[in-house]
Amino acid sequence: MAKDKDLKGKNLSELGDILRRTREERGLSLEDVAKDTKIPRSHLLAIESGEMDRLPGRIFARFFIKEYLSYLGLSELWSQYDSFLPMDEQVEISSVLGTYTPPPKGFRATSRWWIYAVLILLLGASGSLLYLRREHVIDIIKQPRNVVSVETEVGTDASPEDILAAINGFEDDQEQSIIVERPDEDVSLQVTLPHVEDGEAMKAKEEEEAAKESPKILEIKASRGRCWVRVSRGDKKIYEGIIQLNETKAFETTGEPIKVRFGNVAAVDVTWMGTKAEMPRGSVVTVLYQADGKVVKAD
Prior knowledge:
About 40% of the residues lie in helices and about 20% in strands. It has eleven helices and twelve strands. The radius of gyration is 35 Å and the shape is flat. The strands form three sheets. The protein has a five-stranded antiparallel sheet, covered by helices on one side. The chain has a four-stranded antiparallel sheet with strand order 7-4-9-10, with no helix packed on it. The protein folds into four domains: about 90 residues, lambda repressor-like DNA-binding domains (434 Repressor (Amino-terminal Domain), Orthogonal Bundle); about 30 residues; about 45 residues, no CATH class; about 80 residues, no CATH class. The two termini are about 25 Å apart. It is of the alpha+beta class.
């Protein structure tokens, strides 16, 4: 931030000079700011030089200045700019929105019969499709389940120990079915055991799901000086501002990557998921912290 403590009484040129020096202190070019804020470079140059007449209208000038101040973390300067760019609501709003003429009285409401017609056509098409494919649907319903029979393995005189041995011989991905027949007693017994996952496999799956759901923490500490940062989670910006010396900011995510743009990367230390991350070289850089623990430079 600029060193000027007394901001009152500054003219537009002096205010623009504060913006320019703040931008340069962070190692940002006009092209960098234009890329991040979507404000044309020529408009940024006009703001920094205090030439408001080069901006396209009062409303757009106020919007561009507010956006630029927020980007640099200098929102406290807005009250100064606001006094130079007063907004006349009667003139400014009408110039943008134009005039509004109410609709004439007595207009007829739009008929909605076509909505019901479309719904009827959709229901009819669905019923016809189901009727044409009825045989396929019936085949799916009647399709028998595949079972594994071990009747020949246990034999007709199988003991309980034989049956247990047969159960232990099943593959993990098979449905377990045992048929035991006693011809002399005219008895046939079939037992089907559902597939049960191996204990270690179930534990590994639970740990994997817990790892996906557990929050992942990104910590940024300004160890060697102040640093401006903009932090986004997925496509949403969650923080933008200056981290002061020895201050730490923490951000949390569960699955979405975190993208951080550093204005002074050499001044900070970053810890991602409990591990100190190696920082790329440069002044203004963008880094992507992925949910799998990888750290990628995104410039």
